[in-house]
């Protein structure tokens, strides 16, 4: 079993060191002071611990929900009343979210920012000047910058608050101002961040984490600020490429990147979030719980019964149907299912009524055994007048509707629903495809690379089919769908490619203002200086 403490160097003391809060500033409520703690290198690292614990907490939960359920990548309909949850998940699909059910990114990211401000303040006072101090504070400022990037991406204009102990209300800074702040923080951090990769920096940002996030920012700069920054994106990508620290995982190990035993040995991980169910405050990494059909518990040897509410949509799965030789197809559960040997049919025994709740025969209680089959269309069996309360039903047909993603392979070693799979935030393949896209969008080619050569360097490690002979932006978009499915980037991609206002599943909303979420009501109450985002004022 992996131990995230081994990678992060964050003993258990760090998890409970400071109180938890969703404000941007978190006051010290313990008797620990710089005169008592921290006093040495181990304690300095412990002081940074709450930042990483807080970030890990909701990264694979609130961040994933908002970035995937709001797109054609995933849908979470109710099934027999289960998972309706005040339409929290359905609102993501229909794009009719409100300030009361638009996800928890605001509170989560604000908590990380607040804890970062606190830790930076303590360490600036307690630590002696030197390389160790410069690096540790640069890491914390990078974590804060990542959190501000997530808020800017999700909400547009947000308050900038970096001074610990300032409890005044802060008005929103413009999206451009937040962009400029994050850019400045990352560029200032780069010289002080650790240049190494691997075990010594795993789970903490290194120099290339900052460069990779800068590339992501620049590629989306026209969305965020109205001005394209394609050449800057290429330059940032080149910094990562020239570091020589990373490689594209070959076809044989692509799927293993996401297994429960993944970690710093993965060649593509620039910044990944470590998970370990055995560690207190280990965060929520529940992919198998949400993605594995409940009838397949035995197939994966799980110690719990998964609830399997999440499915992909046919519109998204279509990206995987053009190349039968692509290893990425194997991240999906589709069609008829078999036991672990891949040969024995997975049979399920229920009743005729249990299989189909609309069955009208007099023998509805009779035993019925069927070969488990997952169906592709997301079929609503009720009145279309009630479609926004989308409930597929509470029978076997309903629970088997939709193809499922198991990229983050089910963890049979965990004694809870939590998993050991670490989750990447920034990968080397993203650097390669971002550079290809920036060139296609008008940036100047460098290092002898072309969009075609870059994309083929990915595809040659994913498929045994022939190399492409040409590539368009639309081709690149589909390649990103295949490469980064279930990794929390699809909303970002759809917006940049102008596809977020399209129609998929049951969603028909085309409002461009829904590219950002509403500020939660709770945040507006806590901070009277905040003004709600356009289109949500009357909600």
TrEMBL record:
Q: Does the keyword Membrane apply?
A: yes
Q: Which residues form a coiled coil?
A: none
What keyword terms does UniProt attach to this protein?
Cell outer membrane, Membrane, Signal
Residues covered by the RagB/SusD domain? 215-536
The portions of this protein that span the membrane are: none
Tell me the compartments it is located in: Cell outer membrane
The yes or no answer to whether the keyword Signal is present is: yes
Q: Which domain of life is it from?
A: Bacteria
Matches recorded under SUPFAM superfamilies: TPR-like (SSF48452)
* Similarity field: Belongs to the SusD family.
The identity of this protein, by name, is RagB/SusD domain-containing protein
Origin organism of this chain? Flavobacterium palustre
